[in-house]
Amino acid sequence: VQLQASGGGLVQAGGSMKVSCRAPRSIFSVYSAYNMGWYRQAPGKQRELVATITSSGSTNYADSVKGRFTISRDNGKRTVYLQMNSLRPEDTAVHYCNTVLPFQSLSWGQGTQVTVSS
Q1: What CA–CA distance (Å, rounded) separates 60 from 37?
Q2: What 3-state DSSP class applies to 99?
């Protein structure tokens, strides 16, 4: 039972990309109550939280992506999205979604690779 991220790929600096992450059907009845987040992990670095969205739709962003990334969710599809604009080479990372505090983490999926070329 894992979160499934998709939509990554290769893009040039300054470009845009939208990634998605779907939660397993088994949590459909509670998914809308979860606060969700997008995380990323670049090679040789720790995983970092870059965007969050609460059950009520309030959002928050890391300073590094503020003004460029937008998180959204569709509870009926059990899916959280991350629209990424003005991408930079330093955004290159494997991107994951998962719950955020105070909710216990779900099983991490494989993530989706986003590569930004200069």
Answers
A1: 9
A2: strand
Block residue for tokens 């991490």 = 108
Are the C-beta atoms of 19 and 4 separated by less than 8 Å?
no
Pairing of strands 17-22, 48-53: unpaired
Whole-number Å distance between alpha carbons of 19 and 111 = 10
Residue type, 86: S
38 close to 97: Cβ distance less than 8 angstroms: yes
Residues 116, 88 contacting (CB under 8 angstroms):
yes
Q: What angle do CA 17, 18, 22 make, to 5 degrees?
A: 150
From first to last of its 118 residues, the chain has per-residue pLDDT tens of 689 999 999 999 999 999 999 999 988 888 989 999 999 999 999 999 999 999 999 999 999 999 999 999 999 999 999 999 999 999 999 999 999 988 899 889 999 999 999 9
